[in-house]
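thought: user wants a sequence for this fold. calling inverse folding tool.
action: design(structure=
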C-alpha cells in the first residue's frame, strides 16, 4: 500500500478507526511527523488531540539506529542488540539525559498552556507516521498503560511484521495499514514525505486547542 502523503495515510487510519467516532477518544501523536496526521484523525473521530513525548536512543556513531527509547517519566526501553551496537552503561546514561532534555524542551514548546492530557479512563489512540524498530512506540504505550486508559490503541500506516509482533500485549488493539515484506524505511510507502518542523507541530496543537474551546 502506498500513500500520497501523511494526510492521505491519516484519512485511511481514521476510516479504519471509524468505530470510535463520537466516543471522544484521546488521539496522541508521537512528534513530529505524526502530529498533522493525529490532528486530522482527532477531527474525524470527534476526539481530543495531544502529544505523547518519547525519544529514540541512538546507537554510538549511528544516531539513526535505535537501540531503545525513553519516555517523559524517564523510563528506558533497550533493544536486545544495544550492547552489541557499542552502547555501554555510560553511553546510555548520557544518551538518556540528552533525549530527556529534548523532551522537556518540546513539552515547553508544544503545550505551554496546559500539562499533558490525562489519559485515565479514556480511549487512547497513539499515532505515528510509521514504525521501524518500534522503540518509540513501545515507550509511548508503556507510559500510557501506566496511566490506566480504558482502551489503548496503536495506529500506524506502515511497520514491518516483526515490529508489530513486538507490540502484541502492549496495546489492546493494533492497526497497521501496510507491512511490506521488503521493508527498509518508513518513507518507502509515501510519495511525499517531508520533514515536519516544530512550527507546524505548534500550529496544529494551537488550532486544535482553539477549536475545542470554540465548541
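)
observation: tool returned 215 residues.
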Amino acid at each position: 500500500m502506498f500513500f500520497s502523503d501523511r494526510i492521505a495515510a491519516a484519512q485511511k487510519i481514521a476510516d479504519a478507526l471509524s468505530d470510535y467516532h463520537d466516543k471522544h477518544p484521546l488521539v496522541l501523536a508521537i512528534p513530529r511527523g505524526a502530529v498533522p496526521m493525529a490532528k486530522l484523525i482527532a477531527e474525524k473521530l470527534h476526539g481530543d488531540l495531544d502529544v505523547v513525548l518519547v525519544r529514540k536512543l541512538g546507537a554510538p556513531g549511528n544516531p539513526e539506529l535505535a537501540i531503545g527509547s525513553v519516555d517523559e517519566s524517564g523510563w528506558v526501553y533497550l533493544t536486545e542488540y544495544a550492547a552489541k551496537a557499542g552502547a555501554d552503561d555510560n553511553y546510555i546514561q548520557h544518551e538518556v539525559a540528552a533525549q530527556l532534555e529534548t523532551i522537556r524542551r518540546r513539552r515547553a514548546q508544544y503545550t505551554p498552556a496546559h500539562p499533558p492530557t490525562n489519559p485515565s479512563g479514556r480511549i487512547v489512540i497513539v499515532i505515528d507516521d510509521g514504525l521501524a524498530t518500534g522503540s518509540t512506540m513501545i515507550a509511548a504505550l508503556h507510559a500510557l498503560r501506566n496511566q490506566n486508559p480504558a482502551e489503548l490503541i496503536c495506529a500506524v500506516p506502515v511497520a514491518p511484521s516483526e515490529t508489530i509482533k513486538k507490540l502484541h500485549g502492549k496495546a489492546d488493539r493494533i492497526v497497521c495499514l501496510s507491512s511490506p515484506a521488503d521493508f527498509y524505511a518508513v518513507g518507502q510507502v509515501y510519495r511525499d514525505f517531508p520533514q515536519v518542523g516544530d512550527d507546524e507541530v505548534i500550529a496544529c496543537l494551537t488550532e486544535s486547542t482553539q477549536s475545542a474551546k470554540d465548541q
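thought: summarizing for user.
answer: Here is the designed sequence. The two ends are 36 Å apart (CA to CA).
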